[in-house]
Predict the structure.
Amino acid sequence: MRLRARAISRRRTIVAVIITLVVVGAGGAWAALRSSSSQAVTPTLVSAATSTIRAGVSASGTIQPAHRADLTFAVSGTVTSLPVATGDQVKAGAVLATVDTTSLKTTVTSAQASVSATQDQLTAQQDAGSSAVQIASTQAQLTDAQAKLAEAETALAAASMTSPIAGTVAQVNIAVGDKVGSTASASSSSSAGAGSSSASTDASSSSSTAQIVVISTTSWVVEASVGSADLPKLKKGLQAEITPSGSATKVFGTVKSVGIIASSSSSGSASFPVTIAVTGSPKGLYAGGAADVSIIVKQVENVLTVPTSALHTEKSKTVVHQMKNGAQVSTPVTVGTTYGAVTQILSGLKAGDTVVGTTFRGGNTTGGTRTRQGGGTSGGSSGSGFGGGGFDGPPAGMGGGN
């Protein structure tokens, strides 16, 4: 009985040792799969992929018409007609409003009579052989009369307000019967953007001087701003991806201008204006609407990458755990640039090779570069480097804006 009891005790000891070894082994495996931030991780199989790497500067901005005309009568009078209303589509040259021309026509008639009389006087003096002084004096009077006639004719023409651009009537701030004065500035038309000379570049806001506002609705720009850290990366002609607020449809554009004079934000930090011309005539854009912008400042083509989490250091060498015939094999690789969540592979792998990567769970992860096989890595960030946000890229042949 004692021998049997000892045998049972010995077997229990052996079993306990085996269980301990199994627990220790599992603990070691668990430790190997823990990140430095104690996040839970899951091994996953991923493929080395040839990718396009893009680095972007992110910004938010406001959608504005590329062309806007703030129009005001340059002559005094009473508004006699107003054939347009807010929302109407108009062509370039279309009459938008008129003022009473009675007094203006009288002024033209009087100026024409003065020119004719002075011309007759000059002719008579020349025929009579009058002195050079008399002829010169009359000639000066004629020149003055002709200038007044041109001014009167210009005023008569200004009695009809016409649109210098084709577009949509955005504001009408006058009505038939209103008195308008000649102290307001003449109508103007300009492209909205940094340094624009139009009375206002925000078509959604009321203008204190414009009587009628016409905006283009087939060509757009986005007025954005960036911080001083991002300013050196930007230049005219860079491509951009634009996501209007509340829309899942992305449109594309190019940087039209980059301002070099800073303006202070509400937080006191300096920001610099950037104007992006929208490519083509996309639908669903509205003046004054908000948009998120990603401006591509660097792009690297045909880069072989793997997730950065798939890289390991073994015996002072960088390796990946490659799957071959169902088993993990440590494969030495030569790495290039790390772009956030992915790293460039210079040698040791080829596109399509399967390696063991890591998926983090239960905590925040860093890096947001996305990898897509066959065309595939994209990244966008505010500030330097490559990071999250992404830029899926414009269609082939994407060009500049209007």
